Amino acid sequence: MAEYQEKTLDLAPEALTKKDILIMWLRFYFANEIPHSFDRYIAPSLLWAMIPVLKKLYKDKDELAAAYQRHLLFFNTQISWGGGIITGLMASLEQERASQVYKKEEITITDDLIYNTKAGLMGALAGIGDSIDSGTIQYIFIAIAIPWAEQGLAIGALFPFIAFSLYQALIGLFFANQGFRLGRQASDLLTSSTMQNTINVLSILGLFMMGILAGNYVKVTSSLQFTISGKEFIIQDILDSVIPGLLPILVVFGVYGYFVKKGMNVTKALLGLTLILAVLGAVGIL
C-alpha cells in the first residue's frame, strides 16, 4: 500500500512558477522561426518552449507523449503578442488538465479545447501584434535612430534592431505571465472592443509616423524647368506651392501599391525603384 501511494505521488504534477514561464517564453522567443515547416509552421517552436513545462506537469510517459502531440499541430502567430499570450495560456490550460488527469476527474480541458483555443487566437493576436509592433513601434525606433545614422554613427543602424528586440522580448514575457495568470480570461481581454479601439488609435499613429518619415527622409525633387514667353517655370517650386512633399509621398504610395499587388518582394522593389528614378533623372525630369 505504501509503495502504491509513493508511485501515485510520483505522478503528481509539479506547480508551475514564474521561473518556468520565463524559461518557456525565452525558449519560444529564441526558437521562434528556427524549426519552421510548411505543414506545421512554428508548432515545433511552441513545443520546444513548452517541453520543460510539460515534463513538470505529466510524469506519466503516455500522457507526456500525448501532450507533445497536441502541440505539434499547425500553429502560426506573431511572436510577442500572439506568442506571449498563447504560451502563457497553454501553460495554464495544461496545468489544469494535468490536475484533472492526476485526480482522475472528468477531463474538461480536452485536446480539441486546447487546439481550438490556439487556432481561434493565433490569427486574431497576430493581427494585433503586427499592427502595433510592425506597423507602429518599429517605425518609432527607426525615426529615433535616423538622425544618428545621418551623422554616420553606428548606433543609428544598431539602435532600431536592439530596441525592437528588447521591446518584443519584454512585452512578450509580460503577456506570457498575464496569459498564465488570467487563463482563458486573457483571450477575452485581448479581443475586447477596448483593445480594438487601441489598435485603431495606434494604426493612425503608425500612419502619422510613415508620413513624417516620408516627408523628412525621402528626398525626391524635380529638376525640370522651362521658359514660356520669357517666363521661367520651375516645376519643383510649383509643386511645393501646391502640395509640399508631393513627389516623396507619391514614391511611398507607389512602393506600397507594388507591395499590395506583387507581395513583399523588397529586392525587386528596390531594383525597380532605382531603375525608374535613374531613368527619370537621366532625362531631366528628376
UniProtKB/TrEMBL annotation:
It comes from the Bacteria. This is PTS system mannose/fructose/sorbose family transporter subunit IID. PROSITE patterns: PTS_EIID (PS51108). Keywords: Cell membrane, Membrane, Phosphotransferase system, Sugar transport, Transmembrane, Transmembrane helix, Transport. Its main location: membrane. The keyword Transmembrane applies. InterPro entries: GatZ_KbaZ_carbometab (IPR050303), PTS_IID_man (IPR004704). It is a multi-pass membrane protein. It is found in: Cell membrane. PANTHER family: N-ACETYLGALACTOSAMINE PERMEASE II COMPONENT-RELATED, N-ACETYLGALACTOSAMINE PERMEASE IID COMPONENT-RELATED. The chain crosses the membrane at residues 153-176, 197-218, 238-259, 266-285. GO terms for biological process: phosphoenolpyruvate-dependent sugar phosphotransferase system. One of its GO terms (cellular component) is plasma membrane.
